Amino acid sequence: MDAEIIAIGSELLTPFRQDTNSLYLTGHLNQLGVEVAFKTVVGDTRAHLVQVAKTALSRTDMIILIGGLGPTEDDLTREAVAAALGLELRRDPELVAALYARFAALRRQMPENNERQCDVIAGAAVLPNEQGTAPGQWIEGNYAGRKKIILLLPGPPWELRLMFEKQVLERLRAALPPAFIATRIIKVAMVPESTCDARIAPIYKKYADVQTTILADAGEIQLHLRSRTDSLAAAQQRVDALADELEDELGDTVFSTGGESLEQIVAYYLEMRGATIAVAESCTGGMIAERLTSISGSSRYFLGGAVVYSNELKTAMADVPELLIAQHGAVSKQVAAALAEGIRRRSNSTIGVGVTGVAGPTGGTEEKPVGLVFHAVADGVQTEVVERKFIGDRERVRRWAMRQALDLVRRKLM
User: What pTM value is reported for the model?
Assistant: First the structure.
């Protein structure tokens, strides 16, 4: 069964509020073998709500509407769904009495408009709300010639989650046919998206029963594989078979097949080898240190770092010779190497990392354009320097540079 999630609220169409409920619901639905085929965000306009509900009914068999169940004039979900289904609303006297009793127990007078929350669509089962005053509703029946499940859930996340877990999950398990979704995530470092897809498309196209989704970020490609069948073992077998072929094709550019982040893999290698690391960063401004220390227990291998933006601090904190900077410039392979070697000596770490570049949008020259970054990794025996030219805005260049540095460390430790 496929589902559509409809998040309701004009505030969700502004830059100031984001729908997180649909992410939570998608995770639980996938565990039940339900694919979310559509996600819709709609404002508090009755005509739009009715239109969106009708569209959802025409294309999916499970519709979950979030929000718009409160007492105010712009809470129109109940009315809109009833109109879309051609059903009546009735005010439930038991719900009204319970609501007045709840306010009385709090020694508060209930405004009359709260009674709107007690309007129930004909044939719906009421879902009690332990955290709020707006109950949810469960509607199950044949509409447009097919069996449909329609859920009305409250918008506040703490209300929705408790209601879903206590009132909805077991109902769904009983109502849904057996289905299972198996997933795998493969993560690839420092390969352009188009290059990656050109290499793997001939492979994943052979697996018609496995959906492959490619997500790209600066310096990282994620390959999300998913298969749905009536057997978890069968679904997992197909996903794993494709994952193995993709990993063979992409080789050591793959850094994770279980969803781990690049910094988690680096941490794994550092701990496995009993190694330590320190960083001297210029254009990345501490991003490498931030990622390494985002992992609990990182003090076992991360000794520290320095953000050496000025030439003076490159010399004072990482022992980069002034003459070297004068001869080659702060953005150079020579200075990157000196940063890595200097911070390694200063901290007595196993590995030192140095990064220097032009993040932009200003500061570039014809010889050293915006996006030029030098990365160095030193281990006391050999210092490796990589020159890269990244494309994008300042944030994107910095993210590329951060991941390039971490990937160099990964490869050094492999």
Answer: 0.80
